[in-house]
C-alpha cells in the first residue's frame, strides 16, 4: 500500500535536494584609506584587488578616504555610474572635510553629497561617466570614483570605514548599455580598518637606538631608556659599548702600546688581540745630541754613540753642550798635566797650554863628581870621578 504524501511536504523535500544558488556580485565597491591622494593619471588600477589601504595614519594629519569600484561579473560592459555612501565609526578620532574631491572618471554628479560628522556619514558620493563613455571601464581593473578629505583629530583605533548603498533612486550603480541600476544584492560593499597614531605594533616604534626599549601603547610610540641594554657592536678593537641615560657610551679601545718605539702597535679585530710588530725603520732617537742617535735592531733600541769631545789637551775640561748640540773645551789651569817624571820637573797649565816643569838642579859645584838625575829614585846623583879635570887653567898655581 502506497501512502499519500502531502504536496507541501513534497515541495519542501525537493527544495532541500536542490543545490544552493550562489549570487555572484556584478560590482564591488571598496573604501581605500590613503595619506596621499591618488593622482588622476593613476585612477585606473589593474588587478583583482583594490589599491592597498593604509593601516595607520599620523596624528593630526590630513588623509583621504577614496572610493574605488570594479565590474567583475556579467554583464562585463563597464561601469556607467557609481554611487555609494561612506560610513565611519570613531567620530571622536576623525572628521570629514567638505567639499567632495571628485575623481577624473565619474564627473557627472546628479546629487549633492551630505557630510555628517556626528553619525560618521558621507552620503551620496559618486557620479557617472561623461559622454563619450569609456567602454569596459572597471573591467579587470579598479577605478577611482570619489575622494573624501579627512582630518585626524584624535589618536587610537581601530576605525572601520564601510561602503553602502546610497538608497537614492537618483544615485545608483549602472552598467554601460544596460537598462536600470544594478540590484543592491549584486553589489558587494567592502570595508577597511585603520588607526590614527604613531604605530600599530612595537616594531613601528624602532628609534634605531639600542639603549631604549621601544613599545606601542594605544597607537603611541614609547621609547624608554634602558641602560641594561647591550649596544655593543661586537668589535674588539673599539672596546665594549654601554648605555647611559639612553645614549651609547663608546667603549675604551684596548691599549696596544707596548711602550717600545721599535714596534708597530695595532689591534687585530679578527684575532681579538693586540699585535706588536718589530720595525727597525722606526726612529727611537730621544733627540739628545750628547748620547748620539739611537736606532732599532730586531725590535730593540740600540743606544747611539756619544760624540767624542776629547781634544787631547789635559789643560781643558771637555764636555758636551746639549743645548748647543756641540762639544765644549774649557781651559782649566788647575788641571794637572804633569807627566810624572821627576827629572823634567812639574808640568803645569797656563791658559790651556802645558807649561813644562823646571828640572831639578843636581850640580853639587864639585868638578870632581859627575852630576845626574836618577829618574827611578827621583833624586840627584853626584858620583866621584877622579878623571875629571878640576884645573882652573892658571899656570902660576900649577895643575
Layout of strands and helices, then pairs:
Blueprint lengths: L6 H11 L9 E8 L9 E3 L9 E2 L4 E10 L7 E10 L5 E9 L11 E3 L4 E8 L12 E12 L3 E9 L9 E2 L11 E3 L1 E6 L15 E6 L2 E6 L16 E3 L2 E3 L13 E6 L4 E6 L16 E3 L2 E3 L13 E6 L4 E6 L16 E3 L2 E3 L13 E6 L4 E6 L15
Parallel strand pairs: 1-12, 3-13
Antiparallel strand pairs: 1-4, 2-9, 4-9, 5-8, 5-10, 5-11, 6-9, 7-8, 10-13, 14-15, 16-17, 18-19, 20-21, 22-23, 24-25, 26-27
Descriptive overview:
- There is one protein chain.
- By secondary structure, the protein is an all-beta fold.
- The protein contains 1 helix and 27 strands.
- Strands 3, 5, 7, 8, 10, 11 and 13 form a 7-stranded mixed beta sheet that branches. Strands 1, 2, 4, 6, 9 and 12 form a 6-stranded mixed beta sheet that branches. The chain has a two-stranded antiparallel sheet with strand order 14-15.
- The radius of gyration is 59 Å and the shape is rod-shaped.
- Mean pLDDT is 91; it is low at 1-23.
Short description:
The protein is an all-beta fold.
Features:
mainly beta; 27 strands; single chain; 38% strand; 1 helix; 6-stranded mixed β-sheet; rod-shaped; 3% helix; 399 residues; disordered N terminus
What's the Cα radius of gyration?
A: 59 Å
What would you call the shape? rod-shaped
Structural class: mainly beta
- How many strands in all? 27
Number of helical runs?
1
Amino acid at each position: 500500500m502506497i501512502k499519500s504524501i502531502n504536496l507541501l511536504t513534497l515541495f519542501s523535500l525537493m527544495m532541500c535536494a536542490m543545490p544552493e544558488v550562489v549570487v555572484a556580485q556584478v560590482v564591488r565597491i571598496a573604501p581605500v584609506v590613503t595619506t596621499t591622494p591618488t593622482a588622476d593619471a593613476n585612477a585606473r588600477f589593474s588587478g583583482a584587488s583594490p589599491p592597498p589601504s593604509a593601516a595607520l595614519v599620523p596624528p593630526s594629519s590630513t588623509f583621504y578616504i577614496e572610493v574605488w569600484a570594479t565590474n567583475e561579473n556579467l554583464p562585463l560592459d563597464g561601469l556607467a555610474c557609481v554611487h555609494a555612501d561612506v560610513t565611519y565609526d570613531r567620530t571622536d578620532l576623525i572628521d570629514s572635510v567638505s567639499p567632495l574631491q571628485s575623481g577624473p572618471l565619474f564627473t557627472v554628479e546628479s546629487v549633492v553629497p551630505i557630510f555628517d560628522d556626528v553619525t560618521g556619514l558621507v552620503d551620496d558620493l559618486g557620479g557617472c561617466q561623461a559622454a563619450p563613455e569609456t567602454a569596459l571601464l572597471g573591467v579587470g581593473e579598479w577605478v577611482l570614483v570619489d575622494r573624501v578629505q579627512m582630518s585626524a583629530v584624535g589618536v587610537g583605533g581601530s576605525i572601520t570605514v564601510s561602503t553602502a548603498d546610497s538608497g537614492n533612486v537618483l544615485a545608483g550603480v549602472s552598467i554601460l548599455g544596460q537598462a536600470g541600476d544594478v540590484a543592491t544584492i549584486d553589489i558587494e560593499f567592502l570595508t577597511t580598518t585603520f588607526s590614527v597614531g604613531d604605530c600599530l605594533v612595537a616594531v613601528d616604534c624602532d628609534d634605531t637606538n639600542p639603549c631604549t626599549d621601544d613599545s606601542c601603547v594605544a597607537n603611541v610610540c614609547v621609547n624608554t631608556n634602558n641602560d641594561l641594554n647591550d649596544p655593543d657592536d661586537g668589535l674588539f678593537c673599539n672596546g665594549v659599548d654601554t648605555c647611559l641615560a639612553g645614549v651609547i657610551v663608546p667603549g675604551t679601545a684596548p691599549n696596544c702600546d707596548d711602550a717600545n718605539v721599535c714596534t708597530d702597535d695595532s689591534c687585530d679585530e679578527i684575532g681579538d688581540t693586540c699585535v706588536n710588530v718589530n720595525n727597525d725603520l722606526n726612529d727611537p732617537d730621544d733627540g739628545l745630541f750628547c748620547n748620539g742617535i739611537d736606532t732599532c735592531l730586531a725590535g730593540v733600541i740600540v743606544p747611539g754613540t756619544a760624540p767624542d769631545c776629547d781634544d787631547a789637551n789635559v789643560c781643558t775640561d771637555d764636555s758636551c753642550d746639549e743645548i748647543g748640540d756641540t762639544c765644549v773645551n774649557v781651559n782649566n789651569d788647575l788641571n794637572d798635566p804633569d807627566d810624572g817624571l821627576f827629572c823634567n820637573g812639574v808640568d803645569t797649565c797656563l791658559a790651556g797650554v802645558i807649561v813644562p816643569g823646571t828640572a831639578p838642579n843636581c850640580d853639587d859645584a864639585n868638578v870632581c863628581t859627575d852630576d845626574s838625575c836618577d829618574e827611578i829614585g827621583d833624586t840627584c846623583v853626584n858620583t866621584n870621578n877622579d878623571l875629571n879635570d878640576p884645573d882652573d887653567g892658571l899656570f902660576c898655581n900649577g895643575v
